[in-house]
UniProtKB/TrEMBL annotation:
PANTHER family: S-ADENOSYL-L-METHIONINE-DEPENDENT METHYLTRANSFERASES SUPERFAMILY PROTEIN (PTHR35276), TRNA (MNM(5)S(2)U34)-METHYLTRANSFERASE, CHLOROPLASTIC (PTHR35276:SF1). It holds the Pfam family rRNA_methylase. InterPro entries: MnmM_MeTrfase, SAM-dependent_MTases_sf. This is rRNA methylase YtqB. It comes from Daucus carota subsp. sativus (Carrot).
């Protein structure tokens, strides 16, 4: 089976979703997302890339993704839940990951739960420009984590365009996540901007390891949001196809809903 005919590829890349799904499969919606069939035929993006990846440690783990994707398409799950589910397929215990826009800390906490284990090797590097965001993240982490887990998160008051200045050199980064726009509950004029987002993406492209992921949620409902999405889309479209697999998920009849973008490094 070619990569483009695999269900996940059909979902992400086809202009006509489900075009390649056999009629018999339509009776069971779970078949749209059957990631765990015959391993010799399993050409999912995650499996293929992890097989080639120097940081691959174990077969792909796809806990709950098929249900989350279906519920997202049926309007029952949020973009953040899709993003977290995809991260879980890529991130492993002990990994280093970067939250490029930590905001209120919910993504940071989700990442920490993906990397933390008794080895104490996992790390989350969380960045934000606003002090209030870093305070909110710190409070959430302090109330949610024990001391050992809390040690695995480092917070930085800096722009994501400078992420290479704060993360340790020569670490293997599995995930860099950008949740763009303004801080929920905060100052709506303090938004991510196209120029620094682009610099942040270029830095993320350099630091993320093969088999890793750059994940973006792009909000287009505020001034500058659509332009920022165009910047993200142009960056993603220009990445070499032999090294990157890039896709977006967009709700067609909810024009202001966040657009999900995944840049998967092969
Ligand atoms: C949508 S919020 C992030 C939400 C967050 N991930 C969470 O789970 O709550 C966007 C955040 O990006 C931050 N931000 C804006 N420009 C930034 C930049 N250049 N570098 C880092 N963070 C930035 C804002 O301060 C804001 O807190």
């Amino acid at each position: 089976m070619s990569k483009l005919h695999h269900p996940i590829s059909t979902l992400f890349f086809s202009h006509k979703p489900f075009l390649f799904v056999p009629a018999s499969s339509l009776r069971n919606p779970r078949n749209f997302f059957n990631f765990t069939t015959n391993s010799t035929n399993n050409h999912s993006l995650v499996a293929a890339a992890q097989a080639q990846s120097p940081i691959a440690k174990k077969p792909p783990n796809l806990p709950g993704l098929e249900n989350v994707m279906l519920e997202y398409m049926f309007g029952k799950k949020k973009a953040t839940e899709v993003a977290h589910s995809v991260w879980k397929c890529v991130v492993q215990k002990g990994d280093a990951v970067i939250d490029a826009t930590c905001g209120n800390g919910y993504d940071t906490l989700a990442m920490l739960n993906m990397v933390a284990d008794k080895s104490q090797k996992g790390r989350v590097y969380a960045l934000d420009l606003q002090d209030v965001a870093l305070q909110n993240t710190r409070s959430l982490l302090d109330e949610s984590l024990d001391d050992n887990e809390r040690e695995l998160v480092e917070l930085f008051s800096t722009c994501h365009s400078k992420l290479e200045e704060v993360i340790p050199r020569n670490i293997t980064v599995r995930l860099v996540a950008f949740n763009l726009g303004y801080l929920p509950g905060g100052d709506k004029t303090m938004i991510t901007k196209s120029d620094t987002t682009l610099l942040g993406l270029e830095a993320a492209e350099r630091v993320v390891a093969p088999g890793g992921l750059i994940s973006l949620l792009v909000y287009v409902g505020h001034p500058g949001g659509r332009e920022e999405f165009e910047t993200v889309q142009a960056f993603a479209s220009g990445l070499a196809v032999d090294k990157w697999s890039c896709c977006k998920l967009e709700m067609l009849n909810k024009p202001l809903a966040p657009i999900i973008v995944f840049l998967f490094k092969r």
